[in-house]
Amino acid sequence: MLAFLNCEHINKLLDKLDLINHSVDKRINLDKVKKAIFYVKKYHGNQKRDTGEPYYMHPLEVALMVADYSFKTDTIITAILHDTIEDTTLTKKRLLRYSVENCRQVQILQETEDSKKQF
User: Fold this and answer.
1) pTM for this prediction
2) Record's SUPFAM superfamilies (predicted)?
3) How many CB atoms within 10 Å of residue 13?
4) Residue 48 in 3-state DSSP?
5) Burial class, 24, CB count within 10 angstroms (exposed 0-12 / middle 13-18 / buried 19+)
6) Would you list the DSSP string of 53-99?
7) Which range of residues forms the domain containing residue 6?
8) What is the number of domains present in the chain?
9) Could you tell me the CA-to-CA distances from 13 to 18, 34, 59, 91, 118 in Å, in that order?
10) Tens digit of each residue's pLDDT (9 = 90 or more) over 52-71
11) N or C terminus: which one in the chain shows less Cβ crowding within 10 Å?
């Protein structure tokens, strides 16, 4: 799994979360965050954005922004995984095995996005 974590964007996120952990009472579980990063890289695989950048960089950037406002592990993980059910082969069932709470939050985000597309 360590090879999956070797990336500038991942290091930037993990460094920020580590810094946050030094200033809050309830620490962010970095092991769970690393597992979510593993999932996002695994399932987004070789997908590219229009810019040519790996697609997984987008969820990591979202997680960086979320970390400015929330110091909860589940919220940061949801930011990382927010596109996986919609844009990859990761199923809800598989995500449920990872985390019931994160699966629920990802589904809520997906439903919100779907309803926005209707308007």
Assistant:
1) 0.79
2) HD-domain/PDEase-like
3) 23
4) strand
5) exposed
6) SBTTHHHHHHHHHHTTT---HHHHHHHHHTTHHHHSS--HHHHHHH-
7) 2-117
8) 1
9) 9, 10, 11, 25, 33
10) 988 899 999 999 999 999 88
11) C
